[in-house]
Design a protein that fits this description.
By secondary structure, the chain is mainly α. The protein has one domain. The chain is built from eight helices and no strands. Helix 1 packs antiparallel against helix 2, helix 4 runs antiparallel to helix 8 and helix 5 packs parallel to helix 8. The longest helix is centred in the middle third of the chain and has 35 residues. The protein is globular.
Length: about 240
């Protein structure tokens, strides 16, 4: 992956992190705002995060498309991809609070990765895309659950046996993410041996990428910095 693609991807992750941070800010309004014109304390940082996300996603796909084309002009399929990025980014922002950080972020990053590999949008991609959505939702929740219960187990064990390092932030986070990475690595290794078709490998690569990034962001924000991430429909 070229530097020109890595930089927008990096800012996509920064944008997601900033949106997560914005939504965790306590919503406050000015005293005496009878008319309800004050958008609240989240409005400015959330707006900046959305703008950063849309811009970064656009640049990421634009560079990806231009790198495979000799022409500097975007054709119809390339324009459709960029429009798709904008739409999926807006959908991510809209559904974030309803279905939660884990599922929404997994789906968003998977979608970006999947169509980045495909380089275009075709109706024949829909079955593979939906298969990937189902896979990443299930596998993402499994990895999340393992990390979640690992941290809880360490905390309870540390509290019961007066082991302070297990009731803190860093060591449980490190152990949790290490176990998650190990599970992801083993599943990826096994799946690569079983999957022979290139289209299925794209699903696998997109899924693994999205889960690694999402789980890493979750551990950093939730466990280390104790940011109150939106749970959505993930009630456990």
């Amino acid at each position: 992956m070229s530097v020109k693609k890595i930089i927008p991807l990096f800012f996509i992750l920064i944008s997601i992190s900033y949106i997560v941070f914005s939504l965790s800010i306590e919503q406050r309004r000015m005293i005496g705002d009878i008319g309800g014109w004050d958008p609240g304390s989240r409005a400015m940082p959330l707006g900046i995060g959305i703008l950063m996300l849309l811009t970064s996603a656009y640049l990421f796909f634009k560079e990806s498309l231009l790198s495979t084309s000799k022409s500097t002009k975007l054709d119809k399929s390339q324009r459709n991809l960029i429009i798709f990025v904008i739409i999926i980014s807006l959908i991510y922002i809209l559904i974030f609070r309803y279905i939660g950080f884990i599922i929404a972020t997994n789906i968003y990053l998977y979608s970006l990765a999947f169509f980045n590999y495909k380089k275009e949008i075709k109706w024949r991609f829909i079955p593979d895309y939906l298969t990937g959505l189902l896979s990443i939702t299930i596998f993402g929740l499994i990895i999340y659950s393992v990390s979640r219960y690992t941290i809880r187990f360490l905390f309870l064990m540390g509290k019961k046996n007066s082991i302070e390092v297990f009731t803190g932030r860093l060591l449980p986070a490190f152990i949790s993410i290490a176990i998650a990475y190990l599970l992801i690595f083993l599943v990826n290794l096994l799946a690569k041996k079983l999957i022979k078709y290139p289209d299925r490998k794209i699903i696998l690569s997109s899924t693994i990428f999205a889960i690694i990034v999402t789980q890493t962001l979750y551990i950093i924000f939730k466990q280390i910095f104790w940011v109150n991430l939106v749970s959505g429909i993930v009630f456990w």
